[in-house]
Amino acid sequence: MTHQDSKLTIDDIGNKLGVTPQFLLEAASAASTQYELFDLPKKSGGTRTICSPKNELKRLQRTILEELLHTFAMPDYVHGCVKGRSIVTNAKPHTNKPLVLTIDIKDFFGSINPEQINRIFRISFNCDDKSAEVLTALTTYGTFLPQGAPTSPALANIAALPLDAAILDICEQSGLQFSYTRYVDDITISGDNRLALMLASFYKTVSAHGFTASPGKLRVGRPSNRQKVTGIIVNKKMAPPKKLIRKIRQQLYYCEKFGIEDHCRKEGIEEQEFLNQINGMLGFIRLTQPTTADLFKIKLTTLQGYTFVSVDESVLLILKHAVEEEKHVNFVYHGSTRKVAPVEVFIDDEGMKFMRGYQTVPEQKWERYMIPDIQSLRLSENA
């Protein structure tokens, strides 16, 4: 059997997707008419055109994604729209680095043409000419990848792999310490400060591979300022933006002061929409600081009149938060007021819950405390 004979035919593709070859041919022929176009405003100004496939085409694209595109083994440094990876896994390699560079690719999907997609199906998925042509018609719109199609992120990831390889080669040739990730159209390079001197080379390489770097979205983060990767602060350890934490704390304060219903009325927002927004923010915070998110959730559900956790569980959450955030706590223990920097929360062989920490008040010493005996626990306002 020759290599040409072993290529996937339209019949093979139909079998993989669970449809007939005739259905694929007809769907491909009509694909260009099966989109709804609309504009969405961008945060940076202007609009982004979304090409949303209609239901039948979208279902077929999802099948192509699940049965074919997801069989491609994506390199470890690609995190966007890859199963098992997220904005957290994308940010983690860049934690506590002297320099964090983030380069945004302008009009990422719009920069990838049908010829590139056809080549991907032929080379990366071993399709013959006809099946590659049909799959290309089913996953592209006009001269580009449609933003709104389920297949576009996976295909764009594969199309950008030569660019990834070229930038990695530049970094490796420099001999400098570096970490590299890409989350869809966001490229992040971190490590040695001297990587900043290679920006011109990075930009030139982006252009050489048919993409355009957005100069207005370049971020150069150093430890003295905020280093942010896919929305997560990475200066010392991964964390949500402090601005977001302050916003939730402020909103819950107003809810406690005025009541949720009155606060929502003052803000001109429906109560359910307000709760959805807060829960969405808590979901983002939970990615990197689950204990912090749980503490906010306790506060929110208490304000709603629900019981979220027991007093004992609440104490555990506050202590875990203090350990994670290296904060002090104040509490009453066996009739004495204590101020402690907790370093560990644990359960011994007999099932007793303990906290170990460095006590600063009333005297400085390392101490172990039985958690059920801790009363009036609160986070200290300062260290």
Describe this structure in words.
- The protein has 383 residues and is of the alpha+beta class.
- The protein is 42% helix and 21% strand.
- The protein is built from 14 helices and 14 strands.
- The protein has helices at residues 10-17, 21-30, 55-67, 87-91, 114-123, 129-139, 152-159, 161-174, 199-208, 242-258, 260-267, 271-286, 290-303, 311-325, and strands at residues 35-41, 47-53, 99-106, 178-183, 186-191, 212-213, 219-221, 228-229, 232-233, 329-333, 336-347, 353-361, 365-370, 374-379.
- Strands 3, 4, 5, 6 and 7 form a 5-stranded antiparallel beta sheet that branches. It has a 5-stranded antiparallel beta sheet with strand order 13-12-11-10-14.
- Strand 11 (336-347) and strand 12 (353-361) form a beta hairpin.
- Helix 10 crosses helix 11 (260-267), helix 10 (242-258) packs parallel to helix 13 (290-303) and helix 12 (271-286) packs antiparallel against helix 13 (290-303).
- The longest helix is centred in the middle third of the chain and has 17 residues, at 242-258.
Q: Averaging pLDDT over every residue, what do you get?
A: 91
Structural class: alpha+beta
- Percent strand: 15-25%
Specify Rg, calculated over alpha carbons: 27 Å
Element order: H for helix, E for strand: HHEEHHEHHHHEEHEEEEHHHHHEEEEE
Poorly predicted residue ranges? none
- Head-to-tail CA distance between termini: 73 Å
Helix content: 40-55%
Number of H/I helices: 14
Shape: elongated
Major beta sheet summary: 5 strands, antiparallel
Number of strands: 14
